[in-house]
Amino acid sequence: MRRRVDETAASKRTEGKSVKRETGEVQTKTKSSWWVWVKRGLIALCTLYVATPFILQFFPSVIQYLVYKHAVTYFVDLRRPCDLGLNHTVNMYLTSEAGVTLGVWHTVPEQKWKEAQGKSLAWYEQSLGDGSPVFIYLHGNTGNRAAPHRLGVANVLSALGYHVVVMDYRGFGDSTGKPTKGGLITDALHLYHWVRAHSKDSLVIIWGHSLGTVVATNIAVKLQEQGNPVDAVILEGAFTNIKCQKDSPNPSPGITGDFHTYSTTFPRTQLKQISIYCSMVKTANEDILFYSSLKKMTTPLMILHSKDDHMVPFRMAEELYNTAKSVLKSEDKVRLVAFDGSHGYLHNGLYRDPSLPNYIREFVQSVAK
């Protein structure tokens, strides 16, 4: 009897050691497998880092995507702005040139909300001439007109009693074509002339955000040269020049652009990305310069910038303000509104500031005088 008990106990000890051994082997295999995937991931990242300049050189379509991140979409039907709470907004399409159709939203002043229900496109077009100021909003280089911060700006302006016309450039959203700087300017000019044709004597103000600030200043100068100047311009999150030397891929010190990955907010850690962007600019034949337009512009101007902007340093807003002030030779026609960094607005969140409507209202009133 005792022998059987001893044999049973020994058997259990043997089985226990076997289970522990098998468990240890499984854990070792798991750790080994995890480390293999880590090494593969690091090798893939290093390969991509080294290969990026060559990819940019031999595949121009990648360059276009990086400069204009228009392929980023939202799961929303752009034909139905009402799905996003814009119940006093109409969706329409304009043709800026052959083969290019632009998706556009027109939001009427908030007080027209009830009247706008069920109205046709013709009613919206006619409403542009009701005497209320009209804002043309030119957005940045990612996404489309349904982005949350763009909806936020439209709601703020509509609540103030203004019309808001928001366009997706060619290749963005549901607009056709492929984006280039020249194409974006052509699209914005077409939209401006369309608005002018329907707005009668109403004020027309262009609001450019981020990449849209380049488009805004360029068309403001062109309209000025044509003798048909815009009434005012607002620049939000504007940046200074991107200067790349012809014989060097590296940018001039302290120069950046609104291309997110290529910001010099932390130049030491992002110099490689800046160099890549410079090669993109030259390869894509893009002249992304800001001062050249701003130095010619005599339009009343308001610059909005958050001090914690993580894409475009606040010092750039100060540089632009000083440049515009010297050109206009007046402190009354140019304003710089700085938002404290403690609010956390960063690059896209200024629409959340409770004081923003007052700044806009005061600016519009000064332009209307």
From TrEMBL:
Region of interest (Disordered), residue spans: 1-24
Domain AB hydrolase-1, first and last residues per copy: 133-238
Protein's UniProt keywords contain Transmembrane: yes
Organism for this UniProt entry: Ictalurus punctatus
Classification via SUPFAM superfamilies: alpha/beta-Hydrolases (SSF53474)
One Gene Ontology term from the biological process aspect of the record: monoacylglycerol catabolic process
Tree of life domain: Eukaryota
Molecular function via GO: monoacylglycerol lipase activity; phosphatidylcholine lysophospholipase activity
Name of this protein: Lysophosphatidylserine lipase ABHD12
Gene that encodes the chain: LOC128630770
PANTHER family assigned: ALPHA/BETA HYDROLASE DOMAIN-CONTAINING PROTEIN, PROTEIN ABHD12B
Keywords of the record: Membrane, Transmembrane, Transmembrane helix
Gene3D superfamilies (UniProt xref): alpha/beta hydrolase
InterPro entries per UniProt: AB_hydrolase_1, AB_hydrolase_fold
Membrane-spanning parts: 41-59
GO CC field: endoplasmic reticulum membrane
